[in-house]
Amino acid sequence: MLAEQEHQHRHQARLRRLLHEAQLPVAKALAEFDWGAIPDLNRGQIEQLAHDSGWLERAENLLLFGPSGVGKTHLAAGICRSLIALDRSSRFFSATTLVQELQRAKAEYALAKALNKLDRYALLVIDDIGYVRKDEAETSVLFELVMHRYERRSLLVTSNQPFSEWEHVFSTSAMTVAAVDRLVDHSTLIQINGESYRRKRARRSAV
Ligand code: ADP
Ligand code: MG
Predict the structure, then answer these.
(1) Residue 51 pLDDT exceeds 90
(2) Which residues is 126 bridged to in the sheet?
(3) DSSP state, 163?
(4) 3-class SS of residue 153
(5) Reduced to 3 states, what is the DSSP secondary structure of residue 130?
(6) Residue 177's domain spans which residues?
(7) Measured in whole angstroms, how far is the alpha carbon of residue 96 from the centre of its chain?
(8) How many CB atoms lie within 10 A of CB 21?
(9) 5 CA distance to ligand 1 centroid (A)?
(10) Measured in angstroms, how far is the CA atom of residue 114 from the centroid of ligand 1?
């Protein structure tokens, strides 16, 4: 019984550490998601991705697309949270922060090391990839990250812009094509259509 208790104790400590390391931007979980707000969304599909980590084992990607405020960040954080409970490591980044960090590494000739270090996360979230501006991405660190993780480790990418608008994220159109190709290969793409939940909430509190 003591051994079992000790095991439980260590397991809980590990989960706490994984949660801390993930640096999720919001404490929100999938349980707090109001599914009725987005009737077209396939709830079962998202819960499957959150509760079955098989796609991480297969190094598949998840792409969440949709306009601002429909819950992409909430869903991404919620999925991470559920996967952490399954003992899977993850790390959440806003795209701009990630680019900044990788650029700093590149400036110090340590990009390869930084990319390898991120390998320890089964899932890496790149939130709002569309907000990366070309001048930031010019040194192509995001491109190198996508190349590096391809068929090795999973990415969860959110975007409020369709692929056709990704020209400004990567330095050249050849890079955009190559990066999109790899992201889409072995991936699930979920398009979220609906009205901004923020706007809806504001309207509700105004009446
Ligand atoms: P996006 O990343 O798509 O711009 P967010 O995930 O940041 O949107 O959502 C905006 C706000 O609305 C957050 O506070 C989020 O928790 C909340 N929200 C969005 N959609 C829902 C939903 N369906 N149920 C509950 N809260 C939601
Ligand atoms: Mg967001």
Answers:
(1) yes
(2) 93, 157
(3) G
(4) coil
(5) helix
(6) 2-206
(7) 13
(8) 15
(9) 38
(10) 31
37 lines ligand 1 (CB under 6 A): yes
Half-sphere exposure of 40 (CA within 13 A, CB side): 8
Q: Residue 161 C-alpha to ligand 2 middle, in angstroms? A: 12
pTM of full prediction above 0.90: yes
DSSP letter at 164 equals G
Q: Read off the pLDDT band of 206 (50, 70, 90).
A: confident
State yes or no: pLDDT of 207 exceeds 70. Answer: no
Identify which ligand lies nearest to the alpha carbon of 77. Answer: 1
CATH, residue 50:
3.40.50.300
Rounded distance from Cα 66 to ligand 2 centre (Å):
10
Identify residues whose C-beta is under 5 A from ligand 2, the ion. 72-73
What is the tens place of the pLDDT at every residue in 65-92?
999 999 999 999 999 999 999 999 999 9
Rounded distance between C-alpha atoms, residue 43 and residue 132, angstroms? 29
Look at the chain and report how many structural domains it folds into.
Answer: 1
62 contacts 188 by C-beta, under 8 angstroms: yes
Q: Take residue 134 and report the two structure tokens written for it.
A: 């070309």
Give yes or no for residue 91 CB within 6 A of ligand 1.
no
Any ligand 1 atom below 6 A from CB of 181: no
